[in-house]
């Protein structure tokens, strides 16, 4: 399959310019409301946590303020946990899973950790159900100096201003059927390359950092999530989305090299979760619960081993 067959914008073999990016943006529309579905859940946590605005997107600063949720009693003798969701705004359980963890489980873990969550890094993407921002830039390939993505730059500034180094970072994502039907074909068209069809894994998996895999830690996340939803099997090539499966439900990426959110800190323990929301056997709430289970599995492991 070629990009010309797969995507209607652009000229095969040529990277998009400003005209194509504007043409793509014109195809987007608001499908759900950040201010109605997400912001009230964030503000509802004000009695238990410090809710702060750490930025706003220039596309519409009133519509798209960016919020963090932090432990009230920050203590220097406790390690810091960063939870990020909605870096890809269309990945719904990343947003609502982060919020559900903060509402239901975070208080328990504050005895061990300082916790900071950025539950919806890309609210424009959340509203338009998109992987990219309005400039056809992927925030999750833009975590580097002088980032072209406001979403990434704002989060990097938040992390840089934390009073302590981050020990644990859990970045909540989904792999959806639309990755294959829309977002990967669009990426190939944007970059002027041929689109090669792939398959979508049926189930949950994690992406660790190839520079610091922490495979026992990844296994603990998988074990916790397996109690909630099914784990993605390897394909016939022993891979998930083109990467070798190094153990059950785990692949590895070079986080910093690729500009991924998973590389935004120098954490000792990091994982990127990938929930599969399009399975006919799961519900939206099960997807949220899988994200909560992933965070719990990660933090329980660190409690057992970091404090041992």
From TrEMBL:
SUPFAM superfamilies from the UniProt entry: Zn-dependent exopeptidases (SSF53187)
Cofactor(s) of this protein: Zn(2+)
Nucleotide-binding keyword on record: no
Stored InterPro entries: AstE_AspA_cat (IPR055438), Peptidase_M14 (IPR000834)
Gene Ontology MF annotations: hydrolase activity, acting on ester bonds; metallocarboxypeptidase activity; zinc ion binding
Residue ranges annotated for the Peptidase M14 domain, each copy included: 30-308
GO biological process, one term: proteolysis
Protein's UniProt name: M14 family metallocarboxypeptidase
């Amino acid at each position: 399959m070629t990009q010309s067959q797969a995507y209607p914008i652009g000229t095969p073999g040529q990277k998009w310019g400003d005209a194509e990016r504007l043409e793509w943006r014109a195809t987007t529309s608001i499908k759900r409301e950040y201010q109605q579905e997400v912001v009230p859940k964030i503000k509802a946590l004000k009695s238990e946590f410090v809710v702060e605005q750490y930025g706003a997107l220039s596309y519409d600063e009133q519509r798209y303020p960016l919020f963090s949720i932090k432990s009230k009693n920050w203590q220097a003798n406790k390690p810091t946990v960063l939870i990020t969701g909605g870096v890809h705004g269309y990945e719904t359980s990343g947003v609502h899973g982060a919020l559900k963890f903060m509402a239901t489980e975070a208080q328990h873990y504050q005895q061990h950790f300082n916790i900071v969550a950025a539950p919806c890094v890309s609210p424009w993407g959340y509203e338009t159900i998109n992987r990219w921002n309005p400039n056809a830039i992927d925030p999750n390939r833009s975590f580097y100096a002088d980032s072209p993505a406001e979403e990434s730059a704002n989060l990097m500034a938040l992390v840089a201003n934390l009073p302590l180094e981050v020990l644990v970072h859990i970045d909540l994502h989904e792999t959806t059927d639309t990755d294959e039907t829309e977002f990967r074909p669009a990426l190939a068209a944007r970059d002027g390359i041929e689109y090669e069809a792939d398959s979508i894994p049926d189930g949950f998996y994690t992406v660790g950092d190839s520079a610091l895999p922490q495979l026992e830690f990844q296994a603990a996340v998988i074990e916790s999530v397996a109690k909630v939803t099914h784990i993605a099997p390897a394909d016939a090539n022993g891979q998930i989305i083109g990467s070798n499966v190094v153990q059950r439900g785990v692949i590895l990426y070079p986080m910093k090299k690729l500009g991924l959110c998973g590389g935004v800190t120098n954490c000792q323990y990091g994982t990127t979760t990938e929930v599969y929301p399009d399975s006919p056997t799961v519900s939206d709430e099960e997807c949220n619960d899988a994200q909560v289970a992933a965070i719990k599995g990660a933090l329980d492991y660190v409690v057992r081993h970091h404090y041992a």
